[in-house]
Amino acid sequence: MDRREYLSLFSEAELNDCQVTEIDRTVNILDEEYLKVITRSIKRAKEVSLDIETTGVHKNAELVGVGLAWEEEKEIHSIYIPVGHITNIEQIPINIVRKVLQDIFNSCLVIAFNVNFEKKELKKYKLEIPNFHDVRYDAVAYDDAYWKLSLKEICDELLGVKWNNIKEICTKKVKERNNKGKLVTRKVLDVPGTSISILGDYCRKDVVYTLQLRNFLKKHVEYATPIINLERRVTPVVVDMETRGIRVDIPAIHKKLDEVNAGLENISAAIFASVGKVFDISSPKQLNKILYEDLGLPEQKNYKNKTEGGLTTDVTALHSLKDLHIVPNLLLQFRELDHLRSTYLESPLKQQVSGRLYTHFNQTVESGRFSSSNPNLQNIDNDESIRSLFIPSEGMCFIDADYSQIEGRVVAHLSQDPVLLEYYRQGGDIHTATSEKLGIERKLSKVINFAIIYGCNPWKLTQIMGKEGYDYSAKDAKELHSSFWSNYCGIKKWREREIEKAHRTKQTFTLYGRRRLFPNINEYGQEITTPWGKPGFQNEKIIQGIEREVISTQVQGSSADIMKFGMVDVDHAFKLRNNIAHLLLTVHDELLAECYPENAEEVKFIMKNRMEDCVSLSLPLVVEVKQGLNWSQVH
Asked: Is pLDDT above 50 for 68?
């Protein structure tokens, strides 16, 4: 059973029953008076779908056109307002269009798909969208797998409609010389050079189908009203963070890059000296020959690799070989430095605009957690020298607020485990509890706690501990695993209860109503007797993986929801104090803000109290705040 079949079981109507309006003509508004007449019709509708076309998705992108769709007397109407096309046709001046749009936005609920983009781009023209709804909220509430799909992909699946991608209609061929000086032809995006009729038809399809998708989804996601309202409140905060960006120390990046390049040269020289020849370190083929033929090291195979006889030189292989020869160890060092160079040094230099990085946050990931891209600041290296490259705006300081042990606290609340609750109420945590109850060091308890809670078996636990330098036999790991559950009976019962419920309902929820679907949780679940005579399931690893997702959704998803409540409350408090500080980033359990030093104490007080009081659990939330002049100092 696929997700589509599963969803139809509890939908109020079959997926294909939706009536889709055909787009068969283009209405492009070039007359100011006509625009004002249509505006009155839009305002009567009270809801309007919005899509904008720009010269790109970069920081300095400019507006090319605006699409609007609305419903009147059960018919959907749509228009396209060109403002930045390169053409001889006269277009309505942007200052007039701006006034009309602001009038519409002030009077209507604005509906869009990924409204963050519209809000951020229109801010450049001093346009605000006070009342809005993002259809992406509905789509992800309907099926969490839709978080990574585009509007066109979702409409194709739910409404059965298709239309061109913008790259298919807005590209042109240009000739330029490549790095070798050879004249080549390549395709580039040219939105303003596209004809008004072609781009207008495309944009109007976007707004019409966005409105129809909203109409189709809203009756199916009434259960998710609280979580959708949360996402709506988070959106302006995210837009402000994306618009503000974060400052980076350009001279320090160049200095660090020189150091890393020198380090790579030294490691390369050591590798070449060890093997007695120079070769391309980045070539898997040449590396296979060096390791397995020239050095005669034991062959490491990855049977997913169909080339080179299944031989591999990936990180796992190099770790297996590093104690046998110096070269695998040097290769690991080289790859780590090379990753550092490309991801955290060269990439920011290319992506920075006037010394600031402007990341894009995706707030509708299936787990509820944020992800970010261009650049990805969620997975920033923990190396202090890398975090020190991020600095506050001139004359300001960083304030960092980090939830302490939020996932452990959520587990305690969800499971109501008396042992864990008591430790937290006495100022301890899950790592202290496990360390004392099992008689192991705190560092090891950090390794095993969530691994076991999420569903790690004793055999896998041995591997995890081994990677952290703990030499436990399979027997010892099994005893540790058993001892953990005997001390946390409340967590065990909660986990079993939630997994049983997920098998029965094929879904699970966070504390605040965010849903994830698991339509295949029973697909391979026929009970069998395993070869070693114990009960089990067919494809048991698949089932166990899904069960881990059930538990991690409740724990990590609820933690992510709490962070969003905290973000909203902190941002609101900042604004009440005349923007005393500005949020810059959210990374997992931490919020990073900047303010002037004279306001630092008040800002720390606001962040700590608002984040700790944003929700009510059966035990207190604790937030740690730090002040510094770069990200490393506050992390």
From this structure: yes
Cross-strand pairs, 172 = 188
d(CA 588, CA 377): 10
Instruction: Of 634, 635, 570, give the one whose Cα is nearest residue 602.
Output: 570
Distance CA 65, CA 559 (A): 40
| Residues 6+ positions from 576 with CB-CB distance below 8 Å | none
- Long-range contacts of 544-549, Cβ-Cβ distance < 8 Å, separation of 24 or more: 544/455, 544/457, 546/502, 546/518, 546/520, 546/521, 547/455, 547/499, 547/502, 547/521, 548/454, 548/455, 549/516, 549/518
505-530: pLDDT as tens digits:
999 999 999 999 998 888 765 665 54
The predicted structure's pLDDT at residue 500: 96
Three-class SS state of 534 = coil
Residue 211 in contact with residue 76, Cβ under 8 Å?
Answer: yes
Local structure of 64: helix, strand or coil = strand
Using CA atoms in the order 18, 19, 24, 29, what is the torsion angle rounded to 10 degrees?
-90
pLDDT reading at 130 higher than 80: yes
d(CA 614, CA 403): 12
| Cα 462 to Cα 474: distance, rounded to the nearest angstrom | 6
Position 241 scores a pLDDT of 96
Threshold 0.85, pTM exceeds = yes
Partners of 296 in beta bridges: none
CA 370 to chain centre: 4
Q: What's the token pair of residue 453?
A: 């809670």
d(CA 77, CA 341) in angstroms, rounded, equals: 52
Instruction: List all residues 6 or more positions away from 1 whose beta carbon is below 8 Å from its beta carbon.
Output: 519, 520, 523
Instruction: Decide: helix, strand or coil at residue 470.
Output: coil
Tell me the mean pLDDT in the region 618-625. 96
- Three-state SS sequence of 411-434: HHHHHCCHHHHHHHHCCCCHHHHH
Q: How far apart are CA 613 and CA 591, in angstroms?
A: 15
> In this structure, are residues 91 and 83 in contact, taking their beta carbons and an 8 Å threshold?
yes
Burial 384-399 (b: 16+ CB within 10 A, else e): eebbbbbbbbeebbbb
Q: Which pair of structure tokens corresponds to residue 614?
A: 């944003």
Amino acid at 314: D
Q: Is 621 left (phi over 0), alpha (psi -120 to 50) or beta?
A: beta
Q: Give CA angle at 535 (531, 536), nearest 5°.
A: 85
Provide DSSP, 156-207.
HHHT------HHHHSEEEEEEE-TTS-EEEEEEE-STTS-HHHHHHHHHHHH
| CA 409 to chain CA mean position, Å | 23
Q: Tokens 């569903």 sit at which residue?
A: 455
